[in-house]
């Protein structure tokens, strides 16, 4: 049965009422040639075998799989156990809507609860939500949370915060009475300039938002940063782009950090051309009522049996619109659920081994790269799995292009984010790289020297 909401007579009456003779007149604001384009180039229908063959032919044009990639800067290649893809694709996880009725959603709710638990274990903080869109929007939500909680309107952002994250924060607050100020970077070590931080922290500051490991790959002194923020009764918000570092570095809670937010794509989500990704947020218990997203809790039913429910859901669909802090719904929860499956499949030992290998591979590269004449490691200390190098002759873009011709994607040119940085490349290393792969990268760089 076809559903036609309007009859021809009704359409004619509507056109007469608004004074048009043709529906196309509604689109006069669109430049000619851009509206109603020709569909001549769209191929005719194909049978299923023909369609599969056509897609295979298109796939053969993609040469990325032939390249050795060391790209990162917020999106990281990691090994994903096959069981994660299998379980997360099961219909009961993949297709359900919001778990309004806990009696029929116990599987989904328990999986999300386990994800929250594991994220709090990794950060050392009290509560975790499930979840947010991506790392950039999670950072922006943390800014809004800090402002709501503190009642202050001034927020400091570290200059070595991921540029895309900073841009999203600015977009979020551009029409709100919130002041954003930037804290400088100490060029000697790539870390936040603590003197500039202390000078800019004042009684009207809600929070200082910093990234660790930061966009330059350097691990910040989170303990000193948190102490400086707390001295002015401001919150310390740590952003994490590479979630794998959580399994290797000292937990943020041990350093006094109040909130840890960021991108958990590394936990079982493929690169997938940029999404969907997984924004996470963990916080001290005092922030619980102000957190966006969902929070699944564990309880007992009338028979004393363990069960799971949506303890907190701050979407306008569930509570008074003016009190809502989120519009997060089912698709983000599925990404969180998949991350939980990944963490469970890897286990404590497996995750720790993968995180350690990421760092050791970066160390191996940095030590060997010191002998190359064409490049210089900018910050040879305090990095996790990303290493910033500087090309001594020519531009980083040319250097990157020459290695690409050899089948090696030598990191990300920093000029993609900052046009002034013409001779720097940021390279990422993970457990998917073995020594043979890194040696191939070094050899290609040596040949370019």
Going by CATH, what is the homologous superfamily of the largest domain? Type I PLP-dependent aspartate aminotransferase-like (Major domain)
CATH level 3 topology of the largest domain: Aspartate Aminotransferase, domain 2
- What's the gyration radius in Å? 25 Å
Give the distance, in angstroms, between the N- and C-terminal Cα atoms. 69 Å
Low confidence ranges:
none
Mean of residue pLDDT values: 92
Order of helical and strand elements: HHEHHHEHEHEEEHEHEEEEEHEEHEEEH
| Strand elements, count | 17
Largest sheet: 7 strands, mixed
Give the overall shape, derived from the CA principal axes. globular
The CATH class of the largest domain, by name, is Alpha Beta
Instruction: Write the CATH architecture name of the largest domain.
Output: 3-Layer(aba) Sandwich
Strand order of the largest sheet: 2-10-9-8-7-3-4
- What number of domains? 2
């Amino acid at each position: 049965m076809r559903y036609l909401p309007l009859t021809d007579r009704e359409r004619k009456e509507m056109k007469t009422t608004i004074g048009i003779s043709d529906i196309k007149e509604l689109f006069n604001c669109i430049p000619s040639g851009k509206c109603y384009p020709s569909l001549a180039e769209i191929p005719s229908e194909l049978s299923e075998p023909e369609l599969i063959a056509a897609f295979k032919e298109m796939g053969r044009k993609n040469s990325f799989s032939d390249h050795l990639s060391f790209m990162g800067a917020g999106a990281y290649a990691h090994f994903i156990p096959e069981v994660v893809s299998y379980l997360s694709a099961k219909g009961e996880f993949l297709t359900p809507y919001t778990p309004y009725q806990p009696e029929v959603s116990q599987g989904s709710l328990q999986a999300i609860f386990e994800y929250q638990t594991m994220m709090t274990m990794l950060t050392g903080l009290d509560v975790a939500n499930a979840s947010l869109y991506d790392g950039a929007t999670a950072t922006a939500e943390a800014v809004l949370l800090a402002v709501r909680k503190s009642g202050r309107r001034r927020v400091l952002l570290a200059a070595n915060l991921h540029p895309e994250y900073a841009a999203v924060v600015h977009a979020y607050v551009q029409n709100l009475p919130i002041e954003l100020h930037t804290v400088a970077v100490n060029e000697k070590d790539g870390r936040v300039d603590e003197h500039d931080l202390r000078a800019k922290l004042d009684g009207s500051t809600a929070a200082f938002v910093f990234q660790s490991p930061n966009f330059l790959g350097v691990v910040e002194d989170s303990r000193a940063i948190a102490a400086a923020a707390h001295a002015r009764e401001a919150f310390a918000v740590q952003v994490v782009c590479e979630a794998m570092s959580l399994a290797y570095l000292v937990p943020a809670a041990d350093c006094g950090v109040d909130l840890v937010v960021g991108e958990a794509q590394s936990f079982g989500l493929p690169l997938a051309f940029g999404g969907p990704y997984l924004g996470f947020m963990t916080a001290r218990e005092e922030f619980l009522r102000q957190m966006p997203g969902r929070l699944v809790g564990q309880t007992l039913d009338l028979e004393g049996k363990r069960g799971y429910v949506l303890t907190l859901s701050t979407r306008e669909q569930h509570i008074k619109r003016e009190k809502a802090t989120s519009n997060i719904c089912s698709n983000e929860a599925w990404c969180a659920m998949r991350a939980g499956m990944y963490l469970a499949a890897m286990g404590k030992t497996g995750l720790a081994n993968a995180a350690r290998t990421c760092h050791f591979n970066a160390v191996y590269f940095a030590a060997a790269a010191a002998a190359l004449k064409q490049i210089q490691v900018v910050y040879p200390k305090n990095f996790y799995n990303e290493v910033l190098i500087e090309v001594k002759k020519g531009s980083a873009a040319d250097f990157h292009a020459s290695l690409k011709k050899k089948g090696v994607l030598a990191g990300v040119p920093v000029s993609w984010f900052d046009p002034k940085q013409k001779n720097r490349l940021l390279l990422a290393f993970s457990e998917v790289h073995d020594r043979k792969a890194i040696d191939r990268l070094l050899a290609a760089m040596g040949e370019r020297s």
